[in-house]
Amino acid sequence: MTPRAISEGYRTSLALGSNGSVYAWGDNTDGQLGDGSTTGSSTPVQVSLPGGVRAIAVSEGYETSLALGSHGTVYAWGMNAAGQLGDGTATGPGSCGDSPCSTTPVAVKLPGGVPAIAVSEGKQTSLALGSNGRVYAWGDNTDGQLGDGSVTGSSTPVQV
């Protein structure tokens, strides 16, 4: 496996392998390594992407991680306190200590089933560029970072 892309966030790093697998290392308090655990690792561990999924891009943010699958599906894992997993909740699907989280990737559904072509993760806000040229955002919106004209967060993607 040869690394094809990398991303570093808050105490966690990601690498995209030439084989389409994603590898993570560092802090895992909120499941951001995506291996089904909350145990940190000082060496890369393979993220548990759903069977048959080949990633083509990765982005690490603040305790949440994103991968873009080759068919345009966005996958998110880690902290979900602000809905940054994009699964319609800010309460789970699991719990990591006192924080809602997912220790394995969950699929994010963009409006209208639009495939994504790029992803970016920040501090509790997630972004995807759709193949239709539109930008979609979800998660925290305290400062208007969803770009939808409001300051109300969203646990599902909204068009910027």
Please describe what this structure looks like.
The protein is mainly beta and 160 residues long. The chain has a single domain (3-159), classed as 7 Propeller (Methylamine Dehydrogenase, Chain H), CATH 2.130.10.30. The protein is 0% helix and 48% strand. It has no helices and 13 strands. The protein has a five-stranded antiparallel sheet, with no helix packed on it. Strands 1-2-3-4 form a four-stranded antiparallel sheet, with no helix packed on it. A four-stranded antiparallel sheet has the order 10-11-12-13, with no helix packed on it. The termini are far apart. The model has no long low-confidence stretch (mean pLDDT 96).
Helices, strands, pairings?
Layout: E1 3-8, E2 12-17, E3 22-26, E4 41-46, E5 55-60, E6 64-69, E7 74-79, E8 94-96, E9 99-108, E10 116-121, E11 125-130, E12 135-139, E13 154-159
Antiparallel strand pairs: 1-2, 2-3, 3-4, 5-6, 6-7, 7-9, 8-9, 10-11, 11-12, 12-13
The main β sheet shows up as:
5 strands, antiparallel
CATH homologous superfamily name?
A: Regulator of chromosome condensation 1/beta-lactamase-inhibitor protein II
Structural class call reads mainly beta
* Strand tally: 13
Radius of gyration computed on alpha carbons? 14 Å
Any low-confidence stretches, pLDDT <50, length ≥5? Answer: none
At CATH level 2, the architecture is 7 Propeller
Query: Remind me, CATH topology?
Result: Methylamine Dehydrogenase, Chain H
Q: Report how far apart the termini are.
A: 36 Å
Strand order of the largest sheet: 5-6-7-9-8
Give the tally of structural domains. 1
Outline: globular
Q: Which percent range fits the helix content?
A: under 10%
